[in-house]
Amino acid sequence: MRIVKTFAECRSLASDSTGLVPTLGFVHEGHLDLMSRCRRENDLVISSLFVNPLQFGDPADFDAYPRKFDRDAGLMEAADVDVLFAPSLEEMYPVEPVTAVVVKGITESMEGAHRPGHFEGVATVVTKLLAGIQPDRAYFGKKDAQQLTMVTRMVPDLSLPVEIVACPTVREADGLALSSRNVRLSDQARRLAVGLSEGLFAAADLVASGERDGAAIERTVTAQLAGMSAEYVTLADRASAEPIVQLDRPAFLAAAVEVGGVRLIDNVWLETDGSSDRGRRLDETSILYGEAH
Ligand code: AMP
After folding, report:
1. What is the CA(27)–ligand 1 centre distance, in A?
2. How far apart are CA 91 and CA 162, in angstroms?
3. Which of 21, 38, 101, 132 is the most buried (most CB within 10 A)?
């Protein structure tokens, strides 16, 4: 695996079939799944590692984000990544940017409403990665459903010559969605946090049994969030990320909570026929906690 610091070097290595997996690092099995799918579908696999200050509204959240470069590089190498793109702040933002990518509508509810500026930061950095590296395919997780809707829509809107590939959410054995932030959960918060996925699964069960009313579906999640403070529980149209009151089109049911000072998000994908995509569970505890951090 080559560790590359500049866009120009990345482009010089690109082949006719190049896949990109953008990450903020502190790699877990969710990221590794994206990388292995990317490996299967491309000759060259590039994974980027950049903790993007533009997408963190709160500087304390940016500072507290877990970082361990050597650990991540080792895991990426083991996942058969060809190129680790780790740009410096100066490479990514050589001059104070006056250009930003703003995606309307899709970014206004849920994460957008609770994290002002977040999606503008994500949309801008994703556009820069796609423009600077020019991959043929880019891999994103369903775990960040609203982000995925946004990135998918940016492709036709900006005429980006890339295919966006959506990958399922990877979970701990008890259902908790993997997130780099999970390493900051205390034992007590970790025990409580499982309520988030349990609530979403209970709602998916309700949908399977015939419920289509948005408020009833959302209430089922809220009822399971003991010990956590819910920021939102929202049934949303998967194409527009707009809240909907009835499950009458492809949707996702998303929630954000704060537990023990850590902010977590999760979702399940719901279909009008009552089926759902809840992601996949690991058999064992995630590699996230394998070492001191
Ligand atoms: P992050 O480093 O958290 O920005 O995530 C990088 C990519 O991995 C994004 O496309 C995420 O949606 C995806 N991702 C994060 N967590 C998971 C997970 N538990 N399962 C699947 N994909 C994930």
Report:
1. 9
2. 22
3. 21
What is the arithmetic mean of pLDDT over 26-48?
A: 98
- At the topology level, CATH places domain 180-289 in Pantoate--beta-alanine Ligase; Chain: A,domain 2 (3.30.1300)
pLDDT tens-digit readout, 109-123? 999 999 999 999 999
pTM of the model: 0.97
Domain 2-167 in this protein, CATH class = alpha beta
Q: Which amino acid does the sequence have at 200?
A: L
Can you tell me which atom of ligand 1 is nearest the CA of 144?
12
Do the domains 2-167 and 180-289 sit in the same CATH topology, yes or no? no
Q: Where are the domains of the chain?
A: 2-167, 180-289
Give me ligand 1 centre to Cα 116, in Å.
20
For residue 140, how far is its CA from the centre of ligand 1 (angstroms)? 7
Closest protein CA for atom 12 of ligand 1: 141
Average pLDDT, the chain: 97
Any catalytic annotation for residue 28? no
